Amino acid sequence: MTWLYLFLAGIFEVVWASTMKLSQGFSNLKFTGLTILGMLLSFGFLSLSLKNLPLGIAYPIWTGIGAVGSIVVGVLIFQDRVSGPTWIFVGFLLIGIIGIKITSGH
């Protein structure tokens, strides 16, 4: 369950970052509320994962899922433009996330 909690924490990080953009500077109350809910769920699941994972493992994976997920959401939903070379570094992030998980021993 620990890794599921961490994965969910990363997904909800993407949710709150995306809804924060949609909140238009917290002027749209619906998306402001969803941002706060996403933050609470993200931090809550991260907290649960930290019961069994070291901070040095959980935190970079959490932020990595959030970073990669936010790039993907930005491209797919907000029509952000990402250059070819940038995708290479996104791939490096994925490799890093997977590498940390595989080599962590947890």
Describe this structure in words.
This protein has one domain (2-103). It is flat. With 106 residues, it is an all-alpha fold. Helices cover 79% and strands 0% of the residues. α1 (2-22) packs antiparallel against α2 (29-49), α1 (2-22) crosses α3 and α3 packs antiparallel against α4.
Low-confidence runs: none
Helix content: over 70%
Total E-strand runs: 0
Q: What's the oligomerization state?
A: single chain
Estimate nothing, just give the exact number of structural domains: 1
Radius of gyration: 15 Å
Family: Belongs to the drug/metabolite transporter (DMT) superfamily. Small multidrug resistance (SMR) (TC 2.A.7.1) family.
Main location: membrane
Keywords: Cell membrane, Membrane, Transmembrane, Transmembrane helix, Transport
GO cellular component, one term: plasma membrane
Give the topology, please.
Blueprint: H1 2-22, H2 29-49, H3 55-76, H4 84-103
Give the gist of this structure.
Helix content is 79%, strand content 0%. It has 106 residues and is mostly helical. The termini are close together.
Features:
transmembrane transporter activity, 79% helix, EmrE-like, transmembrane, 4 helices, 0% strand, membrane, mainly alpha, 106 residues, single chain
